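Need the bound structure for flavin-adenine dinucleotide, inputs here:
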Amino acid sequence: MAFHSVKRPLKVAIIGAGIGGLAAAVALRQRGFEVALYERSQELGEVGAGLQIGPNGVKVLRALGLEDELMRNAFEPFSIMSVTWDEGRLRFCQPLKAIARQKYGAPYMSAYRPDLHNMLRRATGDTPLTLGANCIGADTVGGTAVACFADGTSAEADVVIGADGIRSAIRAQHFGDGAPRFTEMMAWRAIVPMDCVPERIGPNGEVAVRHGEYFGWIGPNGHVICYPIGVNGDKLNIFGGHVTEQWVEESWSVPSSREELIAAKAGWNEALLDMFRHVEHIFKWGIYDRDPLPQWSRGRVTLLGDAAHPTMPTLAQGANMAIEDGFVLARLLARHTDDVEAALRAYPAERKPRTDWVTLKSREQFANNRKASPPPFVDRTWLFVNDVVREEGALTPA
Ligand SMILES: Cc1cc2nc3c(=O)[nH]c(=O)nc-3n(C[C@H](O)[C@H](O)[C@H](O)COP(=O)(O)OP(=O)(O)OC[C@H]3O[C@@H](n4cnc5c(N)ncnc54)[C@H](O)[C@@H]3O)c2cc1C
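Answer from helper R.:
Posting the output first, comments after.
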């Protein structure tokens, strides 16, 4: 009598249930893997702020079957407009909604971070999630991946993915490259109701601000980005970037006040300061990144998202890259089920040209923002057009 060996699905343990960890869980489940999530926090959640999802990220969410839900929960800004910091004069205005689908194959969206996070959590279905699981390291032991937690417990799997953010314990263990670099930028994050946005700005009100517009101000010592979020774009997300040599707070995110923000932007356009006067809850963040790593995988352990490639937010691509990582990793694991370590070697080889580009270009954009006459925004077209869903193999920047 012939016996057929029944292959069990590969088991994947994901450390960290942020946007990157959850998106990876959805992608892996879609390919039939058995997934378990481990999150350090006692409660699952995301910071109450906005997030831009580029066409490249939307295309991955589409492949995961989540585009319709995203469209119901996020907003599609009409255009991107830039005005001068002092007079509010128009620098440029580029259509977004009218061209994104045709030019990039998917819309450019803005979302409330907790909405995206909740959407991904729902999409993981009955994937087991252990809260309060503080991972202290992961290793390959005798052909098995083992994650260890601070309470003395451990979890075994075929693969462990460190999606544990910029201060990743797994990255420190395997690729210990010291503390992240303070980028000389901090940012305030706040949300105001859309009805406090002026209809016209600039001398004599020459610039019309339509409802649903994304607009930015570049000035001395920083830039301010405002974009609509919420189902109907009924709230305005404010990102107030500020150049400072030192981040003196111990924490990376601390409560602030509208007065502090207004004081930092003294002399900026009155319409902008007026919007700041409507801010109720506000936090400030130190912005950190790291140099690209030469390698992200060791044995059966790998990294994903900010753990692998933390990035300045100036190109709004960190979470997009995390979402892409999970999709590509799931595809490679599905291709190499018999050789997990080969899949984990192929994964950074495929991803790094893209994520290195984003890290370095995000720094370049920050440097440009500080120039007296900022050059045009770094062109992200190739990133949007060459998407990881369609393409296989390393996507090398044009
Ligand atoms: C001000 C600002 C604005 C931004 N705007 C954008 C934008 O518009 N678009 C965009 O694409 N990106 C943006 N980003 C970047 C984006 O926020 C990050 O790239 C993204 O959140 C990374 O997701 P992640 O899941 O890899 O990491 P995180 O979101 O950091 O998630 C890591 C998770 O792991 C958990 N964890 C940590 N350590 C452990 C441990 N030891 N054990 C278990 N669990 C652990 C954490 O609690 C957390 O839940 C912005 C960033 C900032 C700071």
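Comments: Residues 15-21, 38-41, 51-52, 133-135, 163-165, 169, 187, 189, 239, 285, 287, 305-307, 313, 316-320, 322 surround flavin-adenine dinucleotide (CB under 6 Å). The radius of gyration is 22 Å.
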